[in-house]
Structure formats: C-alpha cells, structure tokens
Amino acid sequence: MGAQTTGLLSRRDVALLHAVADRRCEIVHGSQPVLFVDGWLCCDADAGRRLISVGLLAEPGPGTGRWPARLTEAGEVEVVHPAVHAGHAGHAVGRN
C-alpha cells in the first residue's frame, strides 16, 4: 500500500481486491463510486471510495454507466504480496 494508506485492509477489502483482480467487479463513476461484484451491488457502500482513496483501486471512467473496476499498480502488489505492505496478517483500511 502506498503512503496514502491510513490503516490496514479488512478481510472484505482484501476479498474485493481479489474480485477486481479476477475481473468480477464493475464500478460506477460519481461523487460516491458504486462498486458491483458479480453484477450485484456491493454491500459496503464505502468500499469503492475507500479503496480509490488509498490508491488501490483506479478511478472509474468518466460519464455514466458501469466500468470494469481496475486495480492500480499498488493494488496489484497488494493482491500478490499483501504481507510486504502490512507487515502482519491483519489488514484494514479505515475500519473492519
């Protein structure tokens, strides 16, 4: 995780990053980005904004409609090597 990270990643955040890496997520652009997983609205309304703000999820494209969610380079590193950044098994961004 980059210098912008304010905490550790929750298990839900890690699972969402893996779902994005598996191309199972879409995101809708807006003041509060909305994340969809397997076509369903993500139960964590803040997840998209939170993962974008810490630099793990790329901003969605402009305009309306759903866009494929994409990991940033830091997000890709987090999926492949989570312990490198966390230093231990617990992860959380903002809250659990």
Question: Could you characterize what this model shows?
Answer:
The chain has 96 residues and is α+β, with helices and mostly antiparallel strands. The chain has helices at 11-21, 47-53, 73-80, 82-86, and strands spanning 25-28, 34-37, 40-41, 66-68. Helix 1 crosses helix 3. The longest helix has 11 residues, at 11-21. It is globular and about 35 Å long.
Fraction of helical residues: 25-40%
Q: Kindly report the spatial arrangement of strands forming the biggest sheet.
A: 3-2-1-4
Q: Count of helical segments?
A: 4
Cα gyration radius (Å):
12 Å
Strand element count: 4
Strand content: 5-15%
Query: Based on helices, strands and strand pairing, what is the structural class?
Result: alpha+beta
What is the terminal separation in angstroms? 17 Å
Mean pLDDT: 81
Largest sheet: 4 strands, antiparallel
- Which regions are unreliable across 5 or more consecutive residues at pLDDT < 50? 1-6, 87-96
Characterize the overall form: globular
Number of domains: 1
SSE topology string: HEEEHEHH
Summarize the structure.
It is built from 4 helices and 4 strands, in the order αβββαβαα. With 96 residues, it is an alpha+beta fold. The chain has one domain.
Key descriptive features of the protein:
alpha+beta; four-stranded antiparallel β-sheet; 96 residues; globular
Question: What topology emerges from the helices and strands here?
Answer:
Elements: H1 11-21, E1 25-28, E2 34-37, E3 40-41, H2 47-53, E4 66-68, H3 73-80, H4 82-86
Antiparallel strand pairs: 1-2, 1-4, 2-3
